[in-house]
Amino acid sequence: MLSTKLPKIITKQLPGPKANIILSERKKYVPNSVGCIYPVVIENSEGAIIQDPDGNLFLDWVGGVGVLNVGHTNPRVVEAVKKQSEKYLHGMFNIVTHKGYTKLAQKLAEIAPVKKNEEVKVFFANSGAEVNENAIKIAKVYTKRPNVIVFSGAFHGRTLLTMTMTSKKAYAKGTGPLADGIFRADFPNLYHLPKGIKEEDAIEYYLARINQIFEEESAADQVAAIVLEPVQGEGGFIPAPLKWVEAVRKICDENGILLIADEVQSGFARTGRMFASNYWQEAGFTPDILTVAKSIAGGLPLGGVIARKEIMDSVPKGVIGGTFGGNAVACAAALEVLEIIKDEDLITKAQKIGTRCKKEFLEWKTKYPVIGDVRGWGAMLGIEFVEDKKTKEPATKFVSDLIQLCVSKGLIIENAGAHGNVIRFLAPLVITEDQLNVGLTILEESIQELSVSKIS
């Protein structure tokens, strides 16, 4: 079985001859802006392993950027897709009702950690960007307010609105003017505190940045929502400190602002909880709206907005909806994903994977001067690489070289962070112990090799 194999490169170089033909076709027919730095073409895949047309085997620690928590082509998901596809592929939910949509909505409503005093309702779209955009539409309608607060390091999508909400403006180059009514506060990155700010004063400092928006950019009574990622993804795998989130929740409550948790990348067992905001729930507070996508359907396009009835039913008919949102096949896959997470106890497995990897990464931090920080929750971990531990200057080239060296040995990893100097761990949660061991070996050997080269 491919799912139990270990990474192995059999061609003399990458890409191999067959993969190279396909990559050449990509270059000819696909816009260069759809970037890709990996010499990898996928032919078959199972679990955490990708096989290319030349027979090379790669261990995938990216998982479609957090899409494949239950693994590539999970046989139970494939069977659910087959079974549904034999009945019907599509029926626009605005026109005909199908039980997959309603059943999935019910299950998510039952488990989602959202603030509620009544029923919870769920709306489906196709992607993280779509659900984030719709969450803002819903929040604006409910509050009758025009503005939104987001944070430095945020990534919420590439539509016009979510591109504006996304911090990194390289993703918006040449596309202005962007949407108005979006205001940005500083996200609490405790590894990169501003000069003169002590860690014990950090929470108050970052809260003051939100209050500064109220004073200088948008009055609090004009803010519909504050949107944040419980663990920033593109921003560098930075968990939001619970004390800070609790204080933000209080600000929202005092000012009639909705708190939106963007769990597109962090949901579905990745952080050692079903949702990262379950950690918030355990601490005594929850968001008003939860957005989910990526791993929800095991590789099929689907996303959801989850909130209490009062919020959802404030929206006039026709304001939210879409042709493919809640597609029958995607919903069937998502229902099976929920069962797999439960049956295989992937929440506990994420905790165990995270504990093992974090222990290794922290040991590496003491051995390799290039590693500045290790952080994350569960199996959503980031390693930040720096040129110098005192200055914390980002080691961007080191990480770029590390990605290429690892892939040449059969391990696919990806960067993150404003400077591209963070390696993020997003391996499928069904990864075998042997695969995890080999992956850790390849990654450490590659760090060691480049560290020696850097010194010399």
TrEMBL record:
PROSITE patterns for the chain: AA_TRANSFER_CLASS_3
Database matches in Gene3D superfamilies: Aspartate Aminotransferase, domain 1 (3.90.1150.10), Type I PLP-dependent aspartate aminotransferase-like (Major domain) (3.40.640.10)
Keywords, ordered alphabetically: Aminotransferase, Pyridoxal phosphate, Transferase
EC code: 2.6.1.19, 2.6.1.22
Catalysed reactions, as listed in the record: 4-aminobutanoate + 2-oxoglutarate = succinate semialdehyde + L-glutamate; (S)-3-amino-2-methylpropanoate + 2-oxoglutarate = 2-methyl-3-oxopropanoate + L-glutamate
Cofactor: pyridoxal 5'-phosphate
Pfam families in the record: Aminotran_3
Keyword S-adenosyl-L-methionine: no
PANTHER family named among the record's database cross-references: AMINOTRANSFERASE CLASS III, LEUCINE_METHIONINE RACEMASE
Family classification: Belongs to the class-III pyridoxal-phosphate-dependent aminotransferase family.
Name under which the protein is recorded: (S)-3-amino-2-methylpropionate transaminase
Natural source organism: Liquorilactobacillus mali KCTC 3596 = DSM 20444
